[in-house]
Design goal:
The structure holds two protein chains of two kinds. Chain A is an alpha+beta fold. Chain A is 37% helix and 24% strand. In chain B, the strands form three sheets. Chain B has an eight-stranded antiparallel barrel. Classes of the chains: A alpha+beta, B mainly beta.
Chain lengths: 502, 164
């Protein structure tokens, strides 16, 4: 393997390109029309255009990507996450074309790709899963029967689903028919398959996942867990490793179950097994239930890298080259605590509206224990075609409390100008006593958002604010139009800029 | 140079010496009160401000200044301007327009011309960056105009629906 094509964009494309360069591998970037000036392109040795902005005409076009691989002489493709990363047909096309797909074989992706199939695989690997159906539900009547059997409340889920689409919590039989129709049609629209199944609703669970890595020689290890319970609309917002509630025994049991599942499906390369973890109020006993397996590198892989000291992308590349893992389970040691914040272009003050546009200023945090995997720069226009994630900020320290304080410090240093971001939202979460006490579950964030914002505000003299504002506006040569624009709404001003600057 | 500011609804008047833009030790007046500061601009739009030994790092972001992670929005007021009161046309009376807060694609129109809508009732859903967002009516009233249809691409600030 000498040349790797990175079939992705943004921070993850850059992350992979960096690992390749460190290993002496040549890199090939691909880009859409709106991404020619993107950061990942300017870090690659070669770059090729795919097509227009929409992902369906560029980053999701497996045929175009394979064509670029042939033209450039790349002998491997790293899919990153999202886009084609979990597309078994694409992995198969790569194999047919004689190009290494850096990920699991298509057969393993198919065995785990649909949630119902994954539940069947979990049963075969004898791992606990949430009670419910293991096949799609053909009708509302069948759904009523299964729900009656496992008992309400239940959760309807899309078999092909992800990201919370096609998901409905159902409290009673009366709500089931409408929820069934809604979940099924949403699943059909989002994933091209209306197949839905039922699970018992676990009340206030934690979302905890295990990182696994398997080579082509039959070795598979687990690299500890990640706590991803802080979610909004089923999208992860903050991830950390290790989890504050997972002890050595639970970690070993979950890890061994995850490895069993991976091996049973012929899994190779990096993967993540997601679990729900709940604590029985009466017995205080912790139970874990298999949720699904993600057959790719995860967005939140850096927190695992921080506490294990292992470069997961480097390991992915080595496994793809046919090398053995080179490390045994008992050699994996967890050390310290890492927290990751996903910095999004969205406005927490306005219902988390996406906020694409020109980044006029970028002041990035630094100092010991801070890692930033960033895909943007000052002067970059965040396109509206893709996911709004700009960057992942990671803080690493000896303890959870110190890591949280380090993250708060880094967020204070961080300024993204021109567009709105969720930086202030993280300050609110990280200052919340429940979060600091690790008293979290998948419904935690919704409850926090429903309450009043009690983020402590540092007292600052109004005179200082006035002086700073006056000095800064005076130091920038303001044209009269800018002074007027400043009193308009930000949206109107942005609209004017775009209209004039186009 | 005198700068009139509106910060959080409060009117402030800051008088700066002529050489302020170059930075240095400056004798300023804030609402008539003398304050001596040491101001330096390490880079464009970034200010290090020393006031009685306390150091503040301030970063300009459009119509806001960010100090120690806190954002303070402000506007420059011009008392000679003939503009009326701020927010004219934003009152509850008269027609109000629902505008696109970002570029995107219309995925659903939830009201028809002639419909009575309540305040905060959803009227249009637009999609951008893989997210669907319901735009709500700013007031109770009657829909008098719908300027978009499903699948239309809209730009930031485009008028979508008018409520009277």
């Amino acid at each position: 393997m000498k040349k790797v094509l990175v079939a992705n964009r943004g921070e993850i494309a850059l992350r992979v390109i960096r690992a390749c360069r460190e290993m002496g591998l040549a890199t090939v970037a691909v880009y859409s029309d709106v991404d020619r000036a993107a950061l990942h392109v300017s870090h690659a040795d070669e770059a090729y255009r795919l097509g227009p902005g929409p992902a369906t005409e560029s980053y999701l076009r497996g045929d175009l990507i394979l064509d670029v691989a042939r033209r450039s002489g790349a002998d491997a493709i790293h899919p990153g996450y999202g886009f084609l990363s979990e597309n078994a047909d694409f992995a198969e096309s790569c194999a047919t074309a004689g190009i290494m797909f850096i990920g699991p074989p298509a057969s393993a992706m198919r065995a785990l790709g649909s949630k119902t199939k994954a539940r069947q695989a979990a049963d075969r690997a004898q791992m606990p899963r949430v009670p419910g159906s293991v096949t799609g539900l053909p009708s509302v009547e069948e759904a009523m029967r299964v729900a009656g059997e496992i008992g309400y409340p239940v959760m309807l889920k899309a078999a092909a689903g992800g990201g919370g689409k096609g998901m409905r919590a159902v409290a009673s039989p009366a709500d089931l028919p409408a929820a069934f129709t809604a979940a099924s049609s949403e699943a059909e629209r989002s994933f091209g398959s209306g197949e839905v199944y039922l699970e018992k609703l676990i009340v206030e669970p934690r979302h905890i996942e295990i990182q696994v890595m398997a080579d082509t020689h039959g070795n598979c290890i687990y690299l500890g867990e990640r706590e991803c319970s802080v979610q909004r609309r089923h999208q992860k917002v903050i991830e950390e490793a290790p989890s504050a509630v997972v002890g050595d025994d639970l970690r070993r049991r979950m890890g061994e179950a995850a490895v069993r599942l991976a091996l049973s499906c012929g899994y190779v390369n990096a993967g993540t097994v997601e679990f729900l973890v709940s604590r029985d109020r009466a017995t205080d006993e912790q139970s874990f239930y298999f949720l699904e397996m993600n057959t790719r590198l995860q967005v939140e892989h850096p927190v695992t890298e921080m506490i294990t000291g292992i470069d997961l992308v480097r390991m992915q590349l080595r496994v793809a080259m046919g090398e053995p893992l080179g490390i045994r389970q008992q050699e994996i040691q967890l050390r310290g605590h890492a927290v990751e914040c996903r910095i999004y272009a969205e406005d927490p003050g306005n219902n988390f509206f996406p906020s694409p546009g020109l980044i006029t200023r970028l002041v990035q945090p630094g100092g010991p224990g801070i890692r930033e995997d960033c895909g943007v720069y000052a002067g970059w226009t965040v396109p509206l075609e893709y996911d709004p994630m700009l960057s992942k900020l990671v803080a690493y320290a000896e303890t959870r409390e110190q890591a949280i304080d380090k993250m708060l410090r880094a967020l204070d240093e961080y300024v993204v100008g021109g567009i709105k971001t969720n930086i202030s939202f993280f300050r609110r979460i990280l200052s919340d006593p429940d979060f600091r006490a690790a008293n979290i579950h998948t419904g935690y964030l919704e409850r926090l958002l429903a309450g009043e914002d009690t983020t402590p505000v540092k007292e600052l003299s109004e005179d200082v604010v006035a002086l700073a504002a006056a000095l800064l506006s005076g130091s920038i040569k303001t044209r009269s139009t800018d002074a007027i624009a400043a009193t308009e709404s930000r949206w109107a001003a942005a609209g004017r800029r775009e209209g004039v600057g186009a | 140079m005198t700068v009139w500011l509106d910060i959080d609804g409060k009117q402030r008047r800051v008088e700066l010496p002529a050489e302020a833009a170059a930075g240095g030790v400056l004798n300023c007046l804030v609402d008539g009160k003398p304050i001596t500061v040491d101001a330096r601009f390490p880079e464009r739009g970034v200010l290090s401000l020393l006031v009685e030994g306390r150091q503040y790092r301030a970063v300009l972001d459009g119509d806001a200044v960010v100090i120690a992670g806190q954002r303070y929005e402000f506007s420059i007021e011009d008392p000679r301007s003939l503009r009326g009161g701020r927010g004219a046309g934003d009152g509850a009376a008269g027609p109000r327009t629902v505008k696109a807060p970002m570029p995107g694609r219309v995925v659903r129109v939830l009201a028809s011309v002639g419909d009575e809508v309540a305040e905060h009732q959803g009227v249009v859903v637009i999609e951008a960056m893989k997210m669907q967002n319901e735009l709500k009516s700013p007031k109770a009233g009657r829909v008098v105009k719908i300027a978009v249809a499903v699948d239309d691409t809209v730009g930031s600030g485009d008028a979508l629906v008018v409520i009277e």
